[in-house]
Amino acid sequence: MQHSPWRLNVAPCMDWTDRHCRYFHRLITRHTRLYSEMVTTGALLHGDVPRHLDYNPQEHPVALQLGGSEPDALAVAARLGARWGYDEINLNCGCPSERVQRGAFGACLMAEPALVRDGVKAMRDVVDIPVTVKHRIGIDQEESYAFVRDFVGTVAEGGCNVFIVHARNAWLQGLSPKENREIPPLRYEHVYRLKRDFPALTIVLNGGVKTAAEVESHLAHVDGVMLGRQAYHEPWSMAEWDARFFGASGPAPVREEVEASMVEYMERHVAAGGAWSHVARHCMGLWNGTPGARRWRQAWSDHSLKAMSPRGVAARAAASRMGSPSTA
Ligand SMILES: Cc1cc2nc3c(=O)[nH]c(=O)nc-3n(C[C@H](O)[C@H](O)[C@H](O)COP(=O)(O)O)c2cc1C
């Protein structure tokens, strides 16, 4: 059976889903789609483009998420992303942070569907890869389903066929971004309804999903599911996804092998002048749920080991992990 390319996705997360993190996740799941951190059009138009866009070729399929609102700037940024080889350009219409609101993009764009439609069209005109939108079900106290339905209907006119829907409102005043991921209630029914009303569009559900059983139940209603915090904090929960959700028949990933590959990756990163801790910080959940996981994490986050080679730290971490299981 042919699955949607958006069947399972790891959410774009600032400060988390950088290229090191994505390389790590890719070792655990071959088929899941990975998203970059949000990169603003300003950063691409005026900043260090390779620093923002470079990635490892192993990361495919990988999407670049853009933050911006001005169609011409979005088009320039999207073209850069396509030239860099990304598989998708995703526009952020869901971030509620004040910094983003000052720039008049993110979630506040949900109040301007025609502008989003024009931005999507401007990007579609210059790239051949899919242009997708990630958004909320509403802003502030706007609870009606009609609001998100009209948003999707208008933006689809610009040529967006894939909508990733964080199933809660963004409250633009009074909540921090973290609270905005926890306090506004989840309304999965709105997302299911979008799929029923727009059967030709790809609808991906996001927000609060934790277990494979939950993924499975959502997949009965929508084309795909996106996970953020669960994927980041419990990365090994993704180890069963390829077999369970993509029907992959290859060997299942093995924690020891993933760790060994990450150590090699860190060695290369250090040889190129980087710090291994910038990589290791994303891998802290690798052994969660097994005896010694906490001691393993402690070794990898021990600042006094910073000058040691990744291989040396790995040996220490393995020895700590395999110490007394009773103190896990
Ligand atoms: C640390 C962090 C950073 C985030 N940064 C972004 C971002 O750059 N762009 C975006 O669209 N969403 C961002 N989000 C929101 C997630 O993509 C996702 O929509 C949200 O966490 C809900 O999904 P979850 O419950 O599976 O975590 C971020 C979330 C977290 C926890």
UniProtKB/TrEMBL annotation:
Reactions catalysed, as given in the entry: 5,6-dihydrouridine(20a) in tRNA + NADP(+) = uridine(20a) in tRNA + NADPH + H(+); 5,6-dihydrouridine(20) in tRNA + NADP(+) = uridine(20) in tRNA + NADPH + H(+); 5,6-dihydrouridine(20) in tRNA + NAD(+) = uridine(20) in tRNA + NADH + H(+); 5,6-dihydrouridine(20a) in tRNA + NAD(+) = uridine(20a) in tRNA + NADH + H(+)
CDD domains: DUS_like_FMN
SUPFAM superfamilies, sorted: FMN-linked oxidoreductases
Keywords assigned: Flavoprotein, FMN, NADP, Nucleotide-binding, Oxidoreductase, RNA-binding, tRNA processing, tRNA-binding
Binding site for FMN: Q65, K134, H166, N206, G207, G208, G228, R229
GO molecular function annotation: flavin adenine dinucleotide binding; FMN binding; tRNA binding; tRNA-dihydrouridine20 synthase activity
Active-site annotation: C95 (proton donor)
Source domain of life: Bacteria
Residue ranges constituting the DUS-like FMN-binding domain according to the UniProt record: 10-306
Family that this chain belongs to: Belongs to the Dus family. DusA subfamily.
Organism: Aquincola agrisoli
PROSITE patterns in the cross-refs: UPF0034
Function, as annotated: Catalyzes the synthesis of 5,6-dihydrouridine (D), a modified base found in the D-loop of most tRNAs, via the reduction of the C5-C6 double bond in target uridines. Specifically modifies U20 and U20a in tRNAs.
Record-linked NCBIfam families: PRK11815.1 (NF008774), yjbN (TIGR00742)
Short name of one Pfam family: Dus
EC number assigned by the record: 1.3.1.91
Positions of the record's site feature: Interacts with tRNA: N92, K178, R181, R294, R297
Cofactors demanded by this protein: FMN
Protein name, per record: tRNA-dihydrouridine(20/20a) synthase
